């Protein structure tokens, strides 16, 4: 983790004023983004602050760089902005994003003890024709495409919210095990121990299970393709047992299996018995219901993705580095919001802080930054008309 300083953020977190303004939210966001290394273009009269201001406005408005530069008076054209963005180098940029995520997260995380880490794979739909066909992955059809860029993410649930610990791209030929290994290597730089890992069914691969177990005991739902597994899940009562994956192969794993039987009484329009199997490493002494309760903690990260997508700039660029950068910006903004919400806006009280519902991510945080940037970038408020309107005879539809 590299050495970074956040003087504005530190002051507000440790000695907040009675109110925090939209201008301060914008300044704090820029403080984070300006720590991402970007080479200066020789001879350009722009600097990284000019570029990051355009990117920030695109993110908070879920629009594109082209949309921002077209609809503002005091920003450069799209071409010089994109020229600057193309100077981003993938690895230094990704390292900086992850370092910033870590340092901001640690402002509200205890340094001692141990933590449960949630891992996930996130797919962002991709439209267009990339320079390299190996850069994207395939997914189930969504948003009119089966192409996506995939990212592996790590979260920890703290203060009732999922804090993002690390983000890694899953490139064309990457295996899921490779991506998880890189993410866990970043998590290991945090000053706390990982005592458990929660993951979805993507973990049900022998090689990946081995990678997870090297860090901490993993818990995840199983995929019911095997006859012996289906037989164990067909029993009428919850029970603990064990099962083997990749039997007789290189990555063979025998895992503790928790079979949890529940009854769906009209939940989501479903009824009857539901059997769910979990690989329950480290939870062999628990009941299947307790295993299910432990695993369900990770459901909160879906809310994190919903928020992240509210702060993701749109683009059609084939550059995977720029796309990854926009993903990083979205996670950084959400992380900043979570920390500010808990540290300076939630009311201290016995038993934990009471979060303010009024400081919503989209309506308050993002929109507040948007309003400041609209003023600073001189967002256009009028557009030239043709001075003529409808051709003669076309106005009949108006009555």
From TrEMBL:
It comes from the Archaea. This is ISH3 family transposase.
